[in-house]
Amino acid sequence: MIIHPRLLVMVLVISLAGFIFNGCTHFEAKPLVASENLARMEQRSLMDSDLRKFVETNMHKTFTEWPPDPIDFEILTLVALYLNPELNVARAKSYEALSAEISAGERPQPSISFSPAYNSSTPSGGGSPWVLGLSFDLPIELFRKRSYRISEARHLTDAAKLAIAEKAWEIRTDLKKNMIALWQAREEELLARQKSETMDELVRIMSARFEAGDISKNELIPVQLSAQQAHIEYSAVKGGTAGILINLEGVAGLAPHALDGLNIELSCFEQAPPEIPSSSARRMALLNRADVLSSIAEYEAIESLLRFEIAKQYPDLNLSPGYEYDQGDNKWQLGFQLTLPLFNRNRGAIAEAEARRTTASAKFNALQANILNDIEYSIAVFRSEQDKLEGAVSALDSYKKQAEFVKKQYEVGEVDKQAVISSRLEVINAASIKLDSQIKMQESLADIEQTLQTPLNASALPIASILTEVK
User: Fold this and answer.
1) How far apart are CA 22 and CA 24, in angstroms?
2) Per-residue model confidence as pLDDT tens digits over 222-255
3) Helices in 84-144 by DSSP H: which ranges?
4) Which are the contacts of 287, defined by CB distance < 8 A and separation ≥ 6?
5) At 37, is the secondary structure helix, strand, or coil?
């Protein structure tokens, strides 16, 4: 059976149309509704079973009760790495970069053209007046252009993944400083209450002495004013943990009040500071920070882009096979096309890529220099705060010994109750100075960990585990 060329052309066109439309991706609507999203945010709590599994997996332990009692810094860090919405933004950007790899790997699309024509001047009986033309255009990329595009996209994907790790460290540092602030607020409230109660006791003693005529009104009034000031200070810090707790829950990705009534372990901030890494360890951290590796990946992406622009100096090949049915005659043709580099050799794009590479190199040098300075500065600050803390601890010990001595003197009748209370106030004031030094030292430790991106006395961040689906 002989198939008429016109029928063959129609069959080919219809088959190609069916193939093209069957392979298309269809739009799927995912409306963003603020009220529904808010409802999900308000339900974020520690009772999420997937969250519990994430924490147990990364801590390599199974909790007999959940939420655990107490909840320490390591647990809250894992909670933040699982729920914090800013980390989800970084994850989403990494998926964008990963999708760009698909685009970079796509080959140029072939095209088909169908050009029917009708010859109205054909004499009757002189054959078919129809002229049917069918041609294909098949572009072929040469000189590894596609591989350079893929290389650029993969390096950008690596940089986006490393940005997740960078964001994770920022979240960890923010979480730790909020926990330090919570510990500070609790300790300050305790000291303020002790001072207020001690001042009240001193006022009672001084008032009794005034009533007995032992002291004048001028001696009593300053003590009363100091007691009032102590009451004001206590009122100012009392309940100050509520706002800090809200901030802490926000960093952890939890809904407000999700941590209410739970025991948050803060004693780790009272422990002796860990050893600072040696110079060689600091150098390794300097070479392996997430932002350093990300900057290198971005530089390599620009190098791939430069290779791509250089390869674009050379033309690609377009094959154009075709068929024409011309009034009964079957005509076949094979054509090809090359772009002639007569007016430019892509020098502009090459120069832009070279300039971007130079800029990326300069940014990398500046980044390493800034990190090196930040590391040494944060260590210098820590050592200074450590020396201040040692002095505050020594002073507190001296005041405690003095208070014990005064107490013994009071027991044998050598001093009065006022002397005991005064020595107790000196201990409270010294404890307040020590607390301030502890806070500053702990904050400087958090800065060291951030600049090194290395935990000093805790488990390493589970970077591999946080490269997960957006929550």
Assistant:
1) 6
2) 999 999 999 999 998 888 888 899 999 999 999 9
3) 85-105
4) none
5) helix
Look at strands 111-118 and 130-140 and give their pairing: antiparallel
List, for the chain, all residue ranges whose pLDDT scores fall below the cut of 50.
Answer: 1-3
Q: Is it true that the peptide bond before 455 is cis, omega within 30 degrees of 0?
A: no
> Which whole-number Å values give the CA distances from 394 to 382, 419, 441, in the listed order?
18, 22, 16
Q: Which two tokens stand for residue 400?
A: 């405690």
CA 195 to CA 422: how far, in whole Å? 11
The burial class, CB within 10 Å (0-12 / 13-18 / 19+), for 293 is middle
Residue 249 CB partners (closer than 8 Å, separation 6+)? 255, 256, 257, 258, 259
pLDDT at site 111 = 86
Reference 452, options 372, 382, 364; nearest CA is: 372
Tell me the two tokens of residue 460: 């390493």
Say how many CA atoms lie within 13 Å of 63 toward its Cβ.
Answer: 20
Contact 237, 181 (CB under 8 A): no
Integer Cα distance of 108 and 16 in angstroms: 17
One DSSP character per residue, 131-197 reads EEEEEEEEEE--TTHHHHHHHHHHHHHHHHHHHHHHHHHHHHHHHHHHHHHHHHHHHHHHHHHHHHH
Q: Which two tokens stand for residue 264?
A: 């948050």
pTM here? Answer: 0.83
Q: Is the peptide bond before 341 cis (omega within 30 degrees of 0)?
A: no
Spatial separation of the C-alpha atoms in residues 360 and 295, rounded to whole Å: 8
Q: Which residues of 21-45 are buried (b: 16+ CB within 10 A; e: fewer)?
A: eeeeeeeeeeeeeeeeeeeeeeebe
* Cβ-contact 257, 249 below 8 angstroms: yes
Distance CA 235, CA 189 (A): 9
pLDDT at 287: 86
Whole-angstrom distance, CA of residue 70 vs CA of residue 145 = 57
Helix (H) or strand (E) holding 417: helix 417-452
Task: Give CA–CA dist 250/55, Å, rounded.
Answer: 18
Token representation of residue 32: 């963003």
